Amino acid sequence: MKILFFGGTKFLGRAAVDAALADGHDVTLVNRGTTNPGLYPDVETITADLTGDLDALDGRSWDAAIDLDPTQLPRHTRRRAEKVAGAVDHYVFVSTISVYSDMSQPISEESPVYEPPETEPEEFDPELYGNLKVGSERALRDVFGDRVAIARAGLIVGPHDPTDRFTYWPRRLAEGGDVLAPGSPSQPVQFVDARDLGAFIVRLAADRTGGVYNATGPAEPLTLGEALERMAGGAHLVWMDDQPILDAGVQPWMELPLWLPGTEYAGLCLADISRALAAGIAFRPLEETARDTLAWSLEAGEQRPTLSREKEREILAGA
Ligand SMILES: NC(=O)c1ccc[n+]([C@@H]2O[C@H](COP(=O)([O-])OP(=O)(O)OC[C@H]3O[C@@H](n4cnc5c(N)ncnc54)[C@H](OP(=O)(O)O)[C@@H]3O)[C@@H](O)[C@H]2O)c1
User: Residue 245: which domain range?
Assistant: First the structure.
């Protein structure tokens, strides 16, 4: 089928485009041509800034659109949706689990969500991430009704991840030695390989499936302890309570990825994914994600700073 992608050249979009091409779909991309230009020389790219003039989309039609939300503002989402409402049969939008307003409890698709901001900011504001996504979701429901699928993604991981929120672990564990393992080994963790999520959103488009889906993994509950053990190789995990790590000033999740102390975010990694499973989401083994992420990361070089080895050593020395 013919699929139009808004975005498609950085991380999740790239994985979804790869999945669509592997499935034999006819792909058209819309982006500014600045992120990884030349990545898909054989794929048609409509060069356009989605905050501006959308006339380049006139007179065309596709079976489905997949929207990676490149502009992150509801007014732009609405504009492009209205532009293609008569030109595509089905629409798939990538939202986030951050739409849920109470992360302390397990999350289902019916859990309460934030309100869209009363006044939309001029530019994307990370503080309003969840609110803005809710605004975009509502705009799409207005325009497409039941012709839209919304994938509320959890933590997305894997090769080409620009956030380094998971990549830390395969890298650190591959270095070996004593590795600071934070908090409780029984803490639940959820994340999804971009390639598995990419394949899922293409499937939602191909099957013309509508509805809202928590889109994260794995299929069966996973703990931080099991996840780290399965990636550990020869490394030695040294478990330490939350408090001394917090006292050392380590920032959970961003500085020491997957670590969620306290109760405020206790539900973040307890999303019910039964709907997505029924709609066909499937997961590769964690070991494969870790191996491929490590290989990519070593080649990609410098990444966003996470817990330094020096700070880790100091914390371990105080144990
Ligand atoms: N990372 C996570 O853990 C996580 C979790 C939940 C949800 N999400 C969501 O997942 C999505 C993934 O994004 P991604 O970066 O991986 O997608 P992507 O589609 O791989 O990359 C972003 C694309 O947007 C294009 N773009 C950016 N600004 C544009 C503009 N003004 N006009 C036209 N095109 C523009 C970029 O190309 P050019 O720069 O060349 O224009 C690029 O192709 C986002 O919606 C994010 O909110 C992420």
Answer: 161-189+220-264+286-317
